[in-house]
Write a structure and sequence with these properties.
Blueprint: H1 19-35, H2 39-46, E1 50-59, E2 65-74, E3 82-89, H3 94-110, E4 116-123, H4 131-145, E5 154-158, H5 164-178, H6 202-217, E6 226-230, H7 234-247, E7 250-256, E8 259-262, H8 269-276, E9 294-296, H9 298-302, E10 308-311, H10 320-323, E11 330-332, H11 341-349, E12 353-355, H12 357-360, H13 363-377, H14 383-408, H15 412-431
Parallel strand pairs: 3-4, 3-5, 6-7, 6-10, 10-11, 11-12
Antiparallel strand pairs: 1-2, 2-4, 7-8, 8-9
Helix pairs in contact: 1-3, 1-15, 3-15, 4-5, 6-7, 6-13, 6-14, 13-14, 14-15
Length: 435
Amino acid sequence: MAIKIDAPLQASSVSDHGGILDTALAQLEIAFDRLGINEGVREIIRQPEREMTVAVPILRDDGTISVYTGYRVQHSSARGPCKGGLRFHPNVNLDEVRALALLMTFKCAVANLPFGGAKGGIEVSPSELSEMELERLTRRYAAMILPIIGSRRDIAAPDVNTNPKIMAWFMDTVSTLSGHMVPEIVTGKPIALGGSTGRVDATGRGVAIATIEILRRLGKDPPGLHVAVQGYGNVGRNAANILADEYGCTIVAISDVSGGIYNSLGLDLPAINEYVSHSRGGLLSGFSEKGEADEINNDELLTLDVDILIPAALESQITVGNSGQIRASVIVEGANGPTTFEADRILYERGIMVVPDILANAGGVTCSYFEWVQDLQFYFWGLEEIRQQLHKVISKAFEEVWLVANERNIDMRSAAYLLALERITNAIQQRGLFP
């Protein structure tokens, strides 16, 4: 059944150009007001518990030295150890990492995982580094932030431009400096080093589960529905293939930083997957599909006439400038913060249903929780059990958010923030303050 939604409260202090941190804080202020949270608790939640900026020097292959800037932000440990990804990207900055750490706190609370939020990043273009340089960068960064991380304090994971190999280097560095194996210091590792089955596709699978959950409640049958996916990286690729293979959706458009392709009859995903598995950087550029496929860019993909739009690239992709042209009736956010605050209001006014990032892409941190538990116990689960438990957690979180949205007559993003904030606030109040 459809929800009747009250108009979202407005936060006049944020603009469409304010960035992901301003957007996250604006959503947070609305949730504070709706729940009547006292000012002291608001101050605790508004700012990170701890943040570190480090210089990361590495020796280049040609014998020169380059110095990069790295960050690690721990937003909250009220509900458990901090948990969050590590991204390598030239646009990484402290405000972005702060925002993503805050979002992770709320994501873990929505999924009811015993974690708080953290995030890390290095301001670097990894494509400009050799593999040996990338390894040196990862290991030096791990050593630099070692004083504030730990398997029961702050656990890292893959994010933009990082992968199991990088997690292995990170884990090996911490283990070497600790004098013993510490597999639980990171998640998303290779299975041979204590990684979990099902972790690679977990975020994309969570997006697919959230998509099916919203379609079921809207009375829409998945087979044949047209889906466009912005960002054919790990999240977007897995979400697209799972929706197509397991639920019968038709993927008509995909894109990445190098461009995109569109075919109203549906794309040949197996051929695309084979191509990107061997292409430079795993990019779509150069792929040519037989038939009616057209080349498109990322902006064009967002405004295609499709049933479901999955933004799974970077933040702030749906803005005031393009939200009025979006034709999808359902948006499922695979990326963190892909919709700006002002754009979110426009989508609401146009009657477009949005499944927010802190719910839709919680599959990754959920499976990371499973991996962390397995590492601590030195006992590992099978793939079927991982997927069953993942479906259970995401479906339950979706139902809880949906119930709050119905009970309060609010949109799903507001409902997710309220559910998470209530859990975080309860943990802070029950723990009290030290000393």
